[in-house]
Amino acid sequence: MSAVASLINRLRRPKDDDREVTKTDAEWEAQLSSQQYHVLRRHGTEAPFGGPAVQPDADGMYRCGGCGATLFKADTKFDSGTGWPSFGDAEHEHVELRRDFSMGIPRTEVHCRRCGGHLGHVFNDGPGPTGKRYCINACALAPSDGTVQ
Question: Mind telling me the catalytic residues?
Answer without folding.
Answer: 135
